[in-house]
Design goal:
Largest sheet of chain A: 6 strands, parallel
Number of strands of chain A: 12
Strand content of chain A: 5-15%
Number of helices of chain A: 19
Oligomer: homotetramer
Radius of gyration of chain A: 21 Å
Shape of chain A: globular
Structural class of chain A: alpha/beta
Distance between the termini of chain A: 45 Å
Largest interface: A-B, 45 and 45 residues
């Protein structure tokens, strides 16, 4: 790498970008950045400008000589990049509204990275990441891709296994949140305990050990249902069944609530829906407020309000990961990377989210070994679903999409489940070129477009 | 084996026994039976007498010198047995009513071999089969156990892996029904096509080939939703999604409807429930009618009415299996046996239901090889669930039971799911000694006994 | 398939062809052959004519209307073929002499399907079979390839996995010889016992059961060192260590002598070599004698002398396999086919030699399950060696060839081993186009051509 | 752990003990040792006294208040121990002489941890370590066992899998030597490169990366045959075949020379033997010299001469490992520990030697993933051999011992191989109680005792 790093952020117009800037500024001593390119698409140009302005003000306030570039031309940005981070959303908030609202309309969970919504997020995102990889192959063949576009695990699997880009690591903030909050509940400080994670993105478990080598997982479990139990704030805190968790002997991630408390989580989702707002719509409000704050010319640091969102720490994790690679730090982080036997009941070459050492050579996972049957059964099913989703996202094969839907435990199998699939396909037509012939047929059959779903929400001022 | 075989049927008072007799009579030329012992428990003594009477009349009419013994003393029967068949139901129809009604009461599928009901059938049955094995070890150490007590796969796994009885084969009539009916739908006669089955009991798939080696699975799939499509009559025929099946490229078994059409099957189950009758209650009526017929002293053959039940051909399959062992016939049958790699995504030592050759040395499975991801994901999850169920059935561990419930796709995870578990534990207290301390605690907490569920039904004349 | 079958035999000029004819004639009732094409290469034209003459006389004597065609044009023959059998030797006897003599010269075992010789047979054969497959793809896309060109397992693996021709089965006569001879040693007739084989070509084990399901493997083992113990006549009968075999609990194949009695087999090979003759040279004499007999115009049946060779029954096995496919017979045979989990310690998609059912849909292996550690260790190493050999044969990669040599237990690792590799590469230059650059370099380094090895032998009238 | 650690060293009379003392003294700041118990057996009492004296002088010179106890009573020492290190040799140098000489007498490699000698070292050692574990279970149930008794991998597998002591780690100095020497050959300092090891004890490979994440394995390979190439000094430096190593793409350990250069290593072993000395005999001389030095009352530090032995750094590795556990350091070390999928082609529960993180919770392996076929084949065979050896060591089963011999690539299979087995059994009778009936029979058959082998050597002043 030449003097000074070139960092590119695809989806740079995200309101999370100031956190990323803060993370880079804090690490400037170890990460000699030369320039940062924020890339976004035309419809987000205004937002991108606001973000770029704040970002530059942050760097200037820190008095480091780093230039922030904003561009709509991805190729210009990628040329010669050292690290590329991805945090884009294909279709933006509008698409998210549909991901959540359409399942809700059919009595199913509306959630953006799990269930039907998560599958469609993958369907929209994977072809785009494929194009980014093609550009990178040409313009920055040695760059590292740090992906935190959701669904992070599936996107990373597509990048590594299907598009063949080995220098990639997938990130998520969920493990980090657990590591920061849980120790406080049982009388330890963050960093004093050793965390062992294994599973898939948004579907992992962990065990915890203290410095005397004693397992303290059981103690952590006692607090898992508390406000600071380690679950991200965007997940409804339906209490886990203590007997179930004690029997499993591992701490689930917050997203397991969708699976282990499916009934309560669905109820809550439907209630939110009836009350006239899903997460997407709440996010819309939060985003608008944040942007208003960012516009203030006097602001030159990450505002407090950003930390309260579900995605908090995401960007900091990304900065740490980049530094661990650049400085060959061998930092222990939980990331999405190739399994290599670390979870021995899953294929060697699939992507898992697992405690790893991050060095200049990338992520090397720590071996977890065998899983007890109940965890193994869940994991194997979820990984099989992910494989179907990715394959369908690449091929546009309707049958594979149906197979993925059938495996997904948050989608009710049968008539309504298929309707959700069909309506989401039509609703997201613009972002699903790979499914074009299928969507054509569905439209000819009169499948709902659900445009009114979004229109109605927007009308109500969202 | 000495001259003339001693056959023992545990649960001999079943109304299916005449079919078993018919099967043996038809094969007397190849299966030189000396005596048949029908074993049952005290509450079924009357029924046992009726059945024994008819059975003896059937043999006498065939003018073979075979003596039918009825006994309540299992040990007397097992002593020196050559083949032991098991077709008992622990708790009888009353327990089945609870297995079906209690999930229904909480809005979940009430079905006797799948969902919560199936799990409890295993909980009640596995300890009893364990005692039978103990007796066999002492009284007939070389006998073959032909199990068709449901859930047949899990019971067989308990027998072979946990109780260590290797001379055991599990049977089910579902594969046989497909082999008899499906060929007719596509212009072949039964026996002209080659069937390849793989999966678990009540959760298997098959592929079909004609005598020219051409795969005709796609043609079979075209008729899978027809009345004679191969699904047992006891399963509600909610039509399979053709696109899903074509994509999978295999014919599912009828029980897959519960999983792939969960919505419709649940609706139908709830409707039956509201109309005042589940399968158990219908069975009760059918049983009473059959018994009335069996009592007729002039009857000396299997009555026509028996064939119309869901379990049809079960017993014939058992007779054929016994003959294949006795005569070293190397017959191709689909049975529950040790995997040995036949389904390579499942552990070597678990029990699977797979096309096998039956010879004097037992069942040897034919290797199926890899499964496509969607089938693999389903199978691995279901097998993991089975492992939890069996382990819980043996240990009486409440946590394991919860883990099994969590994995079972027909049980809604969350508050209500746990309630179903608790109420079923209390409801079946009499048959669950291994769970005694757990049940004690639940009762102290005031968990429903649901005795009125059965009482109410019985009052209404069932 | 249209009326009357077209059979093509590549390497039709082999002296084994009369046995093949006999097998087809005996099965004419079930295998309606229209024409048989014997294909060979120019240097074998004379021999081909002699064989074709005898073959036609044999069919005429049987008074069936089957026409035997001889051709040097493979494509003419393959066009529209139903079954293609392969029994060719690339390089003929001369190459075999080098395969055996050159290792001998360096104090290593000279044997044509094991050790260094076997590896080079694969190196010469695999590219040719690749070309045959290319022709078949165009000229007879539905034909079955029945391979009995050695090393049969590796050639079949190349055909199925690397060249992608799924309609292929590999054959060997070794399992059949065991099934015919061993029963007689322990008081049974051939066909009365059930054989269970698993392993790799020329490296498999079997267990044996009688019609009462009792394992009689131990009894078979008692006779394994006798003249009629089941070992092919071409293998020197150094006695197996009985304690070793009893501990393994399985009957090894005759070729295991090379591995388990490496010392004695090497001694014998060296002695033969010093006495002035290896197997190749003995074969040369036998071949010449046979051909003389075949020329007799009055001969119209397979002569007795043919049966006494090591390859006896090979061709009959091929006829039976073809009939099993054509007639969908579901015959139990031991063949080289895709593993599919049958031997669970080997990869699903590799080729193994295992008891299978042969039907119109091809070979389906019977699952053997786990191997005890000592058998597992041997098998996994031998399969890894095969993988290296095949990959090297296709790529011409010298490093891979070295890796294969290192794994082969019959090649001494070190300086001399590498010399054997280099000399064999140079000696077989004509048949190893894929290794051309490597051979060029070796020749420049002055590696021996060993042409005198053959010249010397030929001079002595071989 | 209470204030101050109690360390126990079984085999404390070893001449390596001063190195261990030095390692502990150097780490006293982080490892607050209270007392060290050196345990040995009666015949070593004198040596133990000499060592204890020097050890105490070393601690006193460092002016730390640590008491060194010498005892022949293992139980007295183990009571309340925190860490137990094992460095004993069952049978001492005399047994080693037989391990090396008897194979040599039959023309096979005489080496103490590989080949026949290594197998017998395991046969003698495993029953003793079993007794130690029994004592530990009672006297120090929370102690960590740090094993560096060879064959370290098999002994550790016996400890963890068979005797069920999970708090155990196996050590070897070979990986550490590579890490210290190799970097210097290619322009780096020790510690600047990242090492990735995987395999079995004395049979592992490694890859090396620099701080920019670039793989430098190829560069390391260029120097593998140099004096400072990383091979321990006790191994004869027959040069590796560069083409072979480049093709494998990994650096083998020094012991691979025995396998990849079997011819040269055997020649060298035979030459040493003919010249009247094997390693054991050289060691005997070195030991005597060292002991003479240790006796000097003025000596109070580890003498220079010790560092020049093959086992150098062994003890320092042990101290570092103990400190990593005690201080929860998460140090990256290459140790023998449970596989847990780290090497995905080997069973989850076997013991492998692999880069791991050492913390208070023990060793957690880093996942290596798939192996290329040639490495996989070797590893799987060697692990299978280890399994047979361990099982035979525990059961005294002669057949298993034969199976192990058959798999071992350094033992020629056949008549002579078996003779080596038989003679070693008889020669080591005193230390092989588990094989008593077998040995009785062999002696009755007149198998050589080979006592003269040792007598002769001792006569010549060794």
């Amino acid at each position: 790498m030449k003097e000074g790093l070139k960092i590119v952020t695809i989806g740079g117009g995200s309101t999370y970008t100031p956190e990323l800037m803060e993370g880079f500024i804090r690490r400037y001593g170890e990460l000699p950045i030369r320039e940062i390119w924020l890339v976004d698409i035309a419809p987000g140009e205004d937002k991108l400008k606001v973000i770029t302005g704040l970002a530059q003000r942050m760097w200037d306030a820190a008095s480091y000589d780093v230039k922030i570039h904003a561009t709509l031309d991805r190729c210009e940005a990628l040329s010669g990049a050292d690290f590329v981070t991805t945090q884009f959303r294909v279709g933006g908030l509008e698409a998210r509204i549909k991901d959540e609202r359409i399942p809700d309309l059919h009595g199913m969970l509306g959630q953006e990275t799990n269930g039907a919504g998560g599958i469609f997020k993958a369907f929209r995102t994977i072809p785009v990441i494929g194009q980014i990889i093609e550009d990178m192959r040409e313009l920055c063949p040695n760059a590292w891709l740090i992906n935190f576009t959701n669904p992070s695990g599936m996107v990373t699997e597509a990048v590594i296994r299907h598009f063949g880009w080995k220098r990639a690591i997938g990130l998520c903030n969920v493990p980090g949140i657990a590591e920061m909050r849980e120790p406080l509940n049982i009388g330890y400080k963050p960093g004093e305990l050793t965390y062992q994670f294994a599973g898939l993105n948004h579907f992992h478990w962990h065990r915890v050990f203290n410095a005397r080598g004693e397992e303290v997982t059981a103690q952590v479990l006692e607090h898992v249902n508390e406000k600071n139990g380690g679950t991200p704030v965007n997940i409804y805190m339906s209490p886990f069944d203590g007997d179930l968790l004690r029997s499993m002997g591992c701490v689930p991630c917050g997203y397991h609530r969708y699976y282990f408390n499916a009934e309560e989580m669905l109820e809550h989702s439907m209630e939110e829906f009836r009350r006239g707002g899903t997460r997407a719509e709440q996010m819309h409000r939060v985003e608008a407020e944040l942007l208003e704050i960012y516009r203030q010319p006097g602001l030159h640091e990450k505002p407090e309000q950003l930390s309260r969102r579900g995605g908090a720490y995401y960007s900091d994790t990304a900065c740490e990961c980049i530094s661990a690679i650049y400085n060959d730090k061998h930092t222990r982080m939980t990331v999405s990377t190739q399994n290599c036997g670390a979870i021995s009941c899953l294929p060697d070459d699939c992507i898992v989210e697992v405690s790893s050492l991050i060095s200049a050579a990338g992520a090397q996972p720590l071996a977890w070994g065998e899983m007890r049957p109940s965890m193994r059964g869940w994991l194997q099913m979820m990984k099989a679903m992910e494989e179907c989703v990715i394959e369908a996202a690449i091929t546009g094969d309707y049958g594979l999409a149906l197979e993925a839907f059938t495996l997904n435990p948050l989608i009710e199998n049968g008539r309504e489940g298929r309707r959700v699939l069909d309506e989401l396909l039509v609703a997201h037509e613009k972002y699903l070129p790979q499914f074009a012939p299928v969507i054509e047929k569905l439209k000819a059959q009169g499948v709902e477009t659900n445009d009114d779903v979004v229109r109605d929400l927007l009308k109500r001022g969202l």
